[in-house]
């Protein structure tokens, strides 16, 4: 027998789609407040929203004659007909939220428009009217939801703990605050203020409050517009990542959404700056036409009329940001003292009074403190010739050539460990002693000194990757047979030889494949593959891209295709594997650009071919590697996202040694 359900049952079933948990209620009511033109919204919850949810705004309010109508199913002021669905400007439009919320809770609304002298109060239980009265009220609307799912115990028992439900609401309010920076939000949980924004339109202020200093100081502004797509917001530099997409905040026409096309475009825009399985932070707002938001009652998903165009614009917007910036990662120095002060030059060095006593004694055990130095052994190596170093930067002390180099500020011991350094009778020169040493040749070096001062001033203004900076760069040495230490003025750079060589190899292979359009390798006999209907559709749609990537593919009857050739740059990869992975990649995203998988395979090959850590290379080889690395457009990361180079300033090193306190 077919039964016609009563209104109460219908409302409860409909509520199951709209009201999943307390956060669902907060989302619907916040969207209504935003659509009402509010400039201030307060969200208050108790017990994770299970016992109480109160949303108060200063928006336009609801006319007293329309309050009851607003709680009927599919009653809305946002649209009139189906034609309005293709150009929705509001966050809400379905007309289901209020009736669904009222059906599973005790619901009270107090509202007043600016044109009315008094407001009204409307109270319902389980969707049934209990009380309707006039009441004094400020302009705007306040909705109070109590005892969610009180009349549907089966639904209530599936709610999580109050802390979990409260966390979902907190996250939602944060998203709303980021997408509506001109609205002042206040979030109160169990009588404690958890979030408060001032509505000044500054997104970075909100992000600082929500995520702290680490993320806020790494933000880059995004302002992009092309062919009907406008993207505004911020994105963090590659060093700020997480192992999930939880920090990807995407808003389309003011609506927080989750979208695979945009997320993938953002990540692809980073390219090899991101580590594998790491995802960036961003808060990006997209403004565009041709968006279908009528996909699901929760309105968390959208459809784009041209997904490829959205992908390309998003990727380009992210790429443009990092073309303009250096991506050398700085070494953190830990917690610094709040007010840093430079130590006065006349302050005695720590332990200065005991220096001679210490120097006269051999430490009992220095095994854990050994410092290994890699000194170039090539007989023809001369740093002054290779890098045009300043004449007084490195000059040998002929009295004991194997132990001492005289620098512009001190005498440095090049012995192999701390014990020999400390035990040696010679001590580093003080400032006054060094002035005497420097002035001893002053008569002969007046012209030279003037030239060198000019060179130093010029060097201090150069970036590490400037062409002119090379002649001021000093290669100090290698540690652990893996990392090269390089100095440019007041900054120390550490280069990972494996990551650097991997990046160079990757760019070489990539350039060859681009210049040659990836030459093909004929297969005899050809490979026969069987494809599903979906795979056939994708292959036919992207056949030109597959051919450009080096594949020669023909139909072979039915669902079978014949592969006559494959790209010849991957001889070690099984022949069918590359095709299957490329096809799967293009099927998943419907986007292929001479294939992203080709890039992934190139990265893998470069990694295998590159020199490894703990593999000693000569200084000449290192110089060649640095030259090629620094010539790249993006030398900062290997193809897998690991940094090739990090830096540490002289000031940061001085902090470590407490010379700055």
Any chance you could write out the topology, listing elements then pairs?
Layout: H1 7-18, H2 22-35, E1 40-46, E2 52-57, H3 67-70, H4 97-103, E3 106-112, E4 119-125, E5 128-135, E6 140-146, H5 153-156, H6 162-179, E7 184-189, E8 192-196, H7 203-211, H8 213-216, E9 219-226, E10 229-236, E11 241-242, E12 248-252, E13 255-257, H9 260-270, E14 279-280, E15 282-287, E16 291-292, E17 303-304, H10 307-323, E18 329-330, H11 355-359, H12 383-387, E19 395-396, E20 404-406, E21 411-413, H13 418-423, H14 431-439, H15 446-460, E22 474-479, E23 483-488, E24 491-496, H16 497-515, E25 520-530, H17 533-541, H18 543-548, E26 552-555, E27 560-567, H19 575-589, H20 596-609, H21 619-630, E28 645-649, H22 650-656
Parallel strand pairs: 1-7, 12-15, 18-28
Antiparallel strand pairs: 1-2, 2-6, 3-4, 3-6, 4-5, 7-8, 9-10, 10-15, 11-14, 12-13, 16-17, 19-20, 20-21, 22-23, 23-24, 24-28, 25-27, 26-27
Helix pairs in contact: 1-4, 2-6, 6-7, 9-10, 16-20, 16-21, 17-19
């Amino acid at each position: 027998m077919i039964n016609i359900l009563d209104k109460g049952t219908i409302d409860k079933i409909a509520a199951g789609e709209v009201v999943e948990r307390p956060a669902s209620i907060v989302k619907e009511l916040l969207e209504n407040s935003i659509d009402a033109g509010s400039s201030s919204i307060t969200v208050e919850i108790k017990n994770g929203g299970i016992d109480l949810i109160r949303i108060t705004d200063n928006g336009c309010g609801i006319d007293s004659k329309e309050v009851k109508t607003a709680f009927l199913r599919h009653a809305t002021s946002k649209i009139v007909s189906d034609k309005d669905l293709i150009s929705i400007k509001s966050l809400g439009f379905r007309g289901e939220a209020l009736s669904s919320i009222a059906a599973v809770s005790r619901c009270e609304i107090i509202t007043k428009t600016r044109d009315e002298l008094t407001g009204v109060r409307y109270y319902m239980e389980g969707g049934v009217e209990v009380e309707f009265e006039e009441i004094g009220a400020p302009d705007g609307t306040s909705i109070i939801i109590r005892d969610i799912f009180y009349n549907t115990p089966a639904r209530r028992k599936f709610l999580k703990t109050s802390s979990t439900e409260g966390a979902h609401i907190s996250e939602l309010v944060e998203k709303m605050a980021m997408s509506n920076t001109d609205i002042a939000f206040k979030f109160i949980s169990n009588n404690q203020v958890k979030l408060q924004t001032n509505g000044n339109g500054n997104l970075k202020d909100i992000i600082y409050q929500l995520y702290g200093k680490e993320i806020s100081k790494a933000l880059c502004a995004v302002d992009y517009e092309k062919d009907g797509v406008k993207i505004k917001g911020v994105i963090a530099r590659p060093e700020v990542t997480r192992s999930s997409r939880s920090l990807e905040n995407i808003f389309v026409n003011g609506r927080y959404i989750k979208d695979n096309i945009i997320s993938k475009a953002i990540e692809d825009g980073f390219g090899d700056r991101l580590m594998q399985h790491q995802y960036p932070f961003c808060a990006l707002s997209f403004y565009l036409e041709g968006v279908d938001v009528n996909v699901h009652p929760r309105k968390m998903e959208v459809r784009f009329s041209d997904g490829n165009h959205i992908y390309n614009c998003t990727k380009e917007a992210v790429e443009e940001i990092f073309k303009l910036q250096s991506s050398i990662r700085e070494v953190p120095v830990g917690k610094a003292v709040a007010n840093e002060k430079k130590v006065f030059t006349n302050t005695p060095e720590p332990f200065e009074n005991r220096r001679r006593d210490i120097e006269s004694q051999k430490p009992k055990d220095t095994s854990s403190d050994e410092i290994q130095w890699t000194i170039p052994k090539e007989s023809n190596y001369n740093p002054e010739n290779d890098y045009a170093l300043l004449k007084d930067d490195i000059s040998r002390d002929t009295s004991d050539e194997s132990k001492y180099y005289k620098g512009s500020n001190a005498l440095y011991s090049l012995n192999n460990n701390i014990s020999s350094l400390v035990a040696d009778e010679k001590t580093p020169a003080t400032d006054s002693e060094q002035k005497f040493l420097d002035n001893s040749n002053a008569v002969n070096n007046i012209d030279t000194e003037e030239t060198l001062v000019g060179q130093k001033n010029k060097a201090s203004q150069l970036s590490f990757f400037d062409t002119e900076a090379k002649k001021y760069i000093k290669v100090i040495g290698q540690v652990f047979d893996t990392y090269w230490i390089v100095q440019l003025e007041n900054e120390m750079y550490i280069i990972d030889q494996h990551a650097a060589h991997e990046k160079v190899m990757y760019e070489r292979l990539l350039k060859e494949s681009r210049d040659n359009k990836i030459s093909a390798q004929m297969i005899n006999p050809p490979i026969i593959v069987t494809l599903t209907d979906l795979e056939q559709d994708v292959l036919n749609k992207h056949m030109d891209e597959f051919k450009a990537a080096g594949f020669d593919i023909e139909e072979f009857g039915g669902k079978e295709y014949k592969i006559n050739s494959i790209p010849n740059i991957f001889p070690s990869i099984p022949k069918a594997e590359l095709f299957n992975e490329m096809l799967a990649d293009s099927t998943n995203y419907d986007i292929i650009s001479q294939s992203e998988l080709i890039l992934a395979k190139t990265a893998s090959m470069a990694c295998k071919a590159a020199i490894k850590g703990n593999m000693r290379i000569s200084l000449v080889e290192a110089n060649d590697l640095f030259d090629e690395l620094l010539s790249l457009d993006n030398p900062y990361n290997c193809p897998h996202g690991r940094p090739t180079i990090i830096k540490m300033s002289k000031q940061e090193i001085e902090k470590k040694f407490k010379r700055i306190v």
